[in-house]
Amino acid sequence: MTENNPLSDLIKIALSEVGYLEKASNASLEDKTANVGKANYTKYGAWYGINPGAWCAMFISWCADRAGAADVIPRHSSCSAGISAFKKLGRWYQRNGYTPRQGDIIYFCDKNGAPCHVGIVTKVTASRVYTVEGNTGSGNTVIANGGAVATKDYGRDYYRILGYGNPKWPEEETGGKQTMNTVKGSTDNENKLIITTQEGIGSEVDGEAGIQYFTDVACKLNIDCFPLTVKIWGAPVIIADDIIPFSAGGATLSDYRNTINGSFYAGERPCSILVQDGITQHAEACHIYYDKPESVLYRTVAGEMGIMRVKTVKELPKCLLWAVGGCGLLSNYDPKAEGFCVCTKGNKTENFSDVINANNHAMLGVKNRHLYLVYCANMTGNQVNAFAKKLRLEMAILMDGGHVAGINGTETFAKINTKEKQYYMIQGVRRHG
């Protein structure tokens, strides 16, 4: 069987697209050379949701998604947005004084110095940088609307190179320690073995056995090894037998192991539904003032887990062990119905849509009777929802984000924003008894 990793896969996937030509209309998008035109229709734009549209940045995002690198390469459809995202991550470098690396995202400027084009660095020598780019043309000058995927190379001091986004690859995030390799079958029967096992345990059916596959096996077999801190599809995840949600009173995540921030709070107290050890800490949905419900994950004393969209705790089943409210995901994903939008009552208007905008978020999910505590970096609500689907969660909610989002797992890659004061936390624990 063969192994893979996001960095090498990014390069392979991008290079495999060389020769793709943009289309004249929204037809034959998957064919490299059919329906050729200059109308900016591409499969990359169709995937992104902007078709037709200038597509060099969407090509980068598409490749990152296919390579499992979406956690380290921000999803973006414009060069300025990509540069801004890398700057927020502290991973942006101007051309002068920086030595580019394979896997860097290279940004170019027009003759006036404004961002205009982007590509992926495939190789670097002492004097040149080699790239693969979407929406470009042949030749070793910047072509920002050339209509093709092509390989290019430039002098490293070329004045049209604006700078580089430097993704934080897994080897760097884990202090140089190798994370679990993903294994692919190299024969038809090996592929069949992996795929049918994935289908049987409810894992992502992609023919690749990695950390998600093995954690799904452990959950399905109910092995006594949790809580575990792992990285799945690049995101820090704590998987636990059960949780304890609690009002934290201003403590920090560093005070508690296997913990993420809780859901919404106002002032110094939770303001979404919270039941802790059978005792109601907050009884109403976070937007109850505007007559909006919220999605609530719960577990009863008898062990039943479920999700309901309610306005008050009284609508939930009796004999609750715990209950956690938030913005519903998966089949419950309807932000507007739950007040994550502009809400008006009388003369009062408030905008809660920032909750689902691009930000850092915490997500709580259920799968195979285990709890998934997930840190989602720089994602919109739609992207968090898509990630919940990719994790194959059965139920899930999105919780507070922005500067309060954090996680404190037992691995270095899962210690993020642990010093921020929190007023609501969720701790992953072992099974009771």
| Low-pLDDT stretches | 173-178
Structural class: alpha+beta
Shape descriptor:
globular
Gyration radius over CA? 23 Å
Helical fraction = 10-25%
Number of strands: 30
Element layout with pairings:
Blueprint: E1 2-4, H1 6-16, H2 43-48, H3 56-66, H4 79-88, E2 92-94, E3 105-109, E4 115-124, E5 128-136, E6 148-155, E7 161-165, H5 170-173, E8 182-184, H6 188-201, E9 208-209, H7 211-220, E10 228-232, E11 235-240, E12 242-246, E13 251-252, E14 259-261, E15 265-266, E16 269-270, E17 274-276, E18 279-282, E19 294-300, E20 305-310, E21 320-328, E22 342-345, E23 348-351, E24 359-367, E25 370-379, H8 381-390, E26 395-401, E27 407-408, E28 415-416, E29 421-422, E30 425-429
Helix pairs in contact: 1-3
Walk me through what this model shows.
- The chain has about 425 residues and is of the alpha+beta class.
- The chain folds into three domains: about 1-170, Alpha-Beta Complex (endopeptidase fold (from Nostoc punctiforme)), CATH 3.90.1720.10; about 180-210, no CATH class; about 235-430, no CATH class.
- Helices cover about 20% and strands about 35% of the residues.
- It contains eight helices and 30 strands.
- The protein has helices at about 5-15, 45-50, 55-65, 80-90, 170-175, 190-200, 210-220, 380-390; strands at about 1-5, 90-95, 105-110, 115-125, 130-135, 150-155, 160-165, 180-185, 210, 230, 235-240, 240-245, 250, 260, 265, 270, 275, 280, 295-300, 305-310, 320-330, 340-345, 350, 360-365, 370-380, 395-400, 405-410, 415, 420, 425-430.
- The strands form seven sheets. Strands 10, 11, 17, 18, 19, 20, 21, 24, 25 and 26 form a ten-stranded antiparallel beta sheet that branches.
- A hairpin with a 2-residue loop joins strand 10 (about 230) and strand 11.
- Helix 1 (about 5-15) packs across helix 3 (about 55-65).
- The protein is globular and about 70 Å long.
- Mean pLDDT is about 90; it is low at about 175-180.
